[in-house]
Amino acid sequence: MAEVSVRRPRVGLFLKLYGSLLICITLVALVTWWSLQGLNDWRAARYREHMASGMFRLIALGTARHAGPGRAAWLQRLAQMMEAPFDVVQGRRQHFTWIESRDLKVGRAVVRLDTSASQADIFARIPGEPDAYIHTRMSKVSEQQAQALATLFVDELQSVPLAQRTQHLQVLKPYFYYQVRMVDADTLHLDAEQRARIAKKEVVLILKQGNSPNSSSVRILAPLPESRQVLELGPLYLFTWMPVRLVLISALLALATITLCAYLLVRPLERRLKQLELVVRRLRAGDLGARAAVRSTDEVGQLAFVFNGMAEHIQRLIVSQKEMVRAVSHELRTPVARIRFGVEILAEADAAEDRQHQLQEIDADIEELNQLIDEILTYARLEEGQRRLNLTAFSLSDLLQRVRSETEALRVPVQIEVDLPAMSEVVAEERYIHRLVQNLVGNAVRYARGRIRLSGGQDATHNWLSVEDDGPGIPEAERQRIFEPFARLDDSRTRASGGYGLGLSIVEKIAHGHAGQMSVGVSAALGGADFTLFWPRHLAEIAVAERHDEAAFT
Prior knowledge:
Blueprint: H1 13-65, H2 71-82, E1 86-90, H3 98-105, E2 110-114, E3 119-125, E4 132-138, H4 143-158, H5 165-172, E5 180-184, H6 192-199, E6 204-208, E7 217-223, E8 229-237, H7 244-284, H8 299-348, H9 352-384, E9 392-394, H10 396-408, E10 415-419, E11 426-428, H11 430-447, E12 451-458, E13 462-469, H12 503-513, E14 517-522, E15 529-536, H13 539-553
Parallel strand pairs: 10-12
Antiparallel strand pairs: 1-4, 2-3, 3-4, 5-8, 6-7, 7-8, 9-11, 12-13, 13-15, 14-15
Helix pairs in contact: 1-4, 1-7, 8-9, 9-12, 10-11, 11-12
């Protein structure tokens, strides 16, 4: 019978691992989403700044050229082209951050987005004027602004001599994050309408529509005056919130994080199983004291607990077998020696009466050997501890009455009293409880002066039965040792002392097999020894639960 202290864990190992992994996946998903949002916000801000830097560099250069009285007209012209108001502001009043000041210093534009008002304030530093900045507030992007970009670029190139335009273009290129070049109009692949507009010196927008933002773009063609060349800006691509590369990188990072989480979850389990394997190897190598550490109540912890129980049982079996071999060899020598001595006497006896007497003595010794072998086999079967009890409900009163009748039939010189318990039925294996009571009564008969008392009862959780006698009792220091195999309170091992020292060991094994406990004390009524067995009242339910645990493990 398995130990009743083994309980199923409240949270299974699968649920623990699955729950932890689910939490990990949820956290990784939230962190990934939050990171993508933050990264995309940063990318969007950089995209807006990159798109604005080139145009506002041109605007800042134009504003610097139109210093003095003509600046107002220039700002008005800008407002018409860009469909947004322009003014010049002082930087110290704008409270630029360190990063904004750095970008403005190198000629980049700064975009401050106000999402609540769906508008953006854009600033660019005016070259040659300390703490002066061109400023506008824009709420939309239109085709007219794209045409204004081309116009501003052409105006900037016209501000330098024709021979220096190529060199000046190279100076402006770093402020643009898309392609800017001057090409011959004849090298462009244009349709007839576009060529006609180029010939009229009009700005042409070429839209390339694709299946995704990455494949959709705009090119701006602006013919240069006094030249066959065309200024080509672009292609300008739309902003992509979820580019494939970013999604793949995020997915790989998330997968790597989840893999790491899974490893960190499984690694302790793997380490505990490895430790359990090392303990098993130590046990196989002969270290009977090897035990596994039980650190939790999950399946691995329960496995370690069951393994420790098995190891203790194996160690107890081996020690018990060694003790039994020594004790049995001692117990067998006496009757064997007597048989050998009787045979020798029988060979020398002449009288028929002497031979008959020796034959009776030899027969008694053989019967003693049979009883000893029966006791040893019974003890060995109980010591195996693997047999499942055949539980039945029976009357404890009837069993105690039957034992009294069987004992009185042997004409023992003691009076056996039975205090019939006021109870219905108990659940146990009846033949083993019968053997337990027989052994206790047989032990009491050997030491009682004249009276033996049998009783029983039950409470809310336990059944109990008791065998008392009026003998000398058992010293308190010896009350645990008497259950050891072949243990006796006296040093004699003759037939006069009675028994073989296995009766109480069998009693202890039967009690253990019923998840019960033996108690040894002093009889309050008779003054001698009091042996009491306690075992669970709901033994059948415990057995069913243990079989359910075994099935769950398999």
